[in-house]
Amino acid sequence: MGTAGTGTIAPEKILRELDEMWTALSRDPSGEGEGALRACSLTLVTLAEEREDFSALGETIAALMPEHPARTIVVRLQGACESSLSERVFSQCWRPFGQKRQVCCEQVEITASDAALADLPSVILPLAVPDLPLIVWCRTARVAALPEFGAIAAMAQRVILDGEQIPTAREALALVGGIAAHGARAADLTWTRLTRWRAMLSQVFENRQNLAELPRISKVTVSTNGGPALSACYFGAWVMDALGDIGVHPEFHMAHSGEDSSGELHSIELAAPDWSAELARNDGRLIVTVGDIAQCNPLRHATDYLLMEEELRITGRDDSFERALASAQRLCGDRK
Q1: pLDDT of 238 strictly over 90
Q2: Is 83 helix (H, G, I), strand (E, B) or coil?
Q3: What is the rounded average pLDDT of the residues 94-120?
Q4: What is the DSSP letter of 141?
Q5: Full-model pTM
Q6: Rounded to whole angstroms, what are the CA distances from 21 to 14, 85, 88, 119?
Q7: How many Å apart are CA 62 and CA 242, to the nearest integer?
Q8: Which pLDDT score is estimated for 203?
Q9: What is the pLDDT of residue 21?
Q10: Which residues contact 44 (CB under 8 A, 6 or more apart)?
Q11: What is the CA radius of gyration of the chain?
Q12: How many CA atoms within 13 Å lie on the side-chain side of 64?
C-alpha cells in the first residue's frame, strides 16, 4: 500500500494507512485466528542517498527485523532539487521456524530533496512509536554535514554514522563528536569494525607472562595503509586509555605502511624492552605475533547487517566508545 505526492506529508495520513495495513494483515483467511503478529521494539530512521542500492538496503533491514523488530522509516534523499516529499507504507513479515503465524513490522518510505530536510522532523516525530527508542542510521556523510541534520539528530536517542565515509579523520571526529551537542548519543560503525581487533588484543594479555609486560610497554605504534585512518585513531586511543588506567604512559606513533592508499588500519604494535606484541591485517586474516610466536585468525568482512546488529544490541550508553572518541579527538584532532 502506498501514496505519493509533493510539497508536504501529513503524518496522520501515514498513521491511518498503517492502521489500514494492520487491519488487512490481521485477517486470517483460514478462520483459525492466526493473523499476523505486530512486533516493534524501536523506531529506526534510515537516511540514504537515492543512488544507493535500495534492494540491498532492504535486505539488510529485513535481516535485522527478527532480532530488532522496528517501525522503520527509510528516507530516500534526492539531493539538491526542488523541495519535495512523498511517501508509501508497507510491511516486512517473516514466519518464525515451526510456527504458522507471521510476525510483521511496518516500514514507511519517504522521498525527500535537500530543500525538504528541514521538514523531516515534523513528519518523523509523529510517526515514532511512543515510549520506544528512536535511532537514526545516517548512511550519507554528505547529509550528516548539512546544518539541517542537527534537528534530525536531536530527535534521536542514538545517531549511527560511518566515519569512514568522511574524507579525513579530523573531519570525521569533529562530525561524530558534534552529535552530542544535539543531545543524542553518537555511534560510529568505524568503531564497531574494531570489535574483533580489540577482542584479540585483550586475549593477548589473558596470558600471565604477557600481562606482566604491560608496565614495561614504552611505545605504541599504529600503522595504516596510506594516510591516517579514523580506525587507527580510535584503536590507538582505546589502547592508550587502557594503558593509562594502570599508570603506563608510552610514546604513541602513527605510521604508514605504504602498501596501498586505502587508509585502513594495517597493524598495531606494543613494544617493551626485549618484548613486543603485534596485530597485523593480512589478506582477510589477523596475524597476532607475541615475541617469536605468531597465530593466524580469521577477520571476516563486516557487512552492514553485522555492524548494525551489534550496534542495535547496545541499549544504553556505550561508555567505551564515548571515551575512545574523546581521546581520539585529542590524539588525532590535528591530523589531516
Answers
A1: yes
A2: coil
A3: 84
A4: H
A5: 0.89
A6: 10, 21, 12, 25
A7: 37
A8: 96
A9: 86
A10: 61, 64, 68, 70, 71, 72, 73, 135, 137
A11: 23
A12: 29
Kindly provide the b/e burial profile for residues 123-148, where b requires at least 16 CB atoms within 10 angstroms of the residue's own CB.
bbeebbeeeebbbbbbbbbebbeeee
Residue carrying the nine cell digits 600481562: 211
Query: What order of strands is seen across the sheet that includes strand 293-298?
Result: 251-256, 219-224, 265-272, 275-282, 285-290, 293-298
Of 80-89, 111-120, 148-157, 326-335, minimum mean pLDDT range: 80-89
Q: Write the DSSP assignment of 53-71 as a string of letters.
A: -HHHHHHHHHHHTTTS-EE
pLDDT of residue 262 exceeding 90, the answer is no
Class of domain 195-298: alpha beta
Locate 177 and state its grid cell.
563528536
* Nearest one of 255, 268, 195, 192 to 225, comparing CA atoms: 255
Identify whether the C-beta of residue 145 lies closer than 8 Å to the C-beta of residue 293.
no
Grid cell in block for residue 180: 552530542
| Residue listed under C-alpha cell 565515509 | 165
What is the largest distance, in Å, between two alpha-carbon atoms of the chain? 76
Question: Rounded mean pLDDT of 126-147?
Answer: 93
CB 76 within 8 A of CB 67: no
Strands (DSSP E) found in 129-198: 134-138, 158-161, 185-188
* Alpha-carbon dihedral sign for residues 265, 64, 62, 284: positive
Strand ranges in the chain using DSSP code E only, listed in sequence order = 37-38, 42-49, 70-77, 85-94, 103-112, 134-138, 158-161, 185-188, 219-224, 251-256, 265-272, 275-282, 285-290, 293-298
Amino acid at 46: T
Q: Return mean pLDDT, the chain.
A: 88
Residue 224's nearest CA partner among 196, 201, 253, 244 is: 253
- How far apart CA 204 and CA 275 sit, in angstroms, is 13
Q: What is the dihedral of CA 243, 249, 254, 257, to 10 degrees?
A: -70
The whole-number pLDDT of residue 314 equals 93
Domain boundaries, the chain: 11-156, 195-298
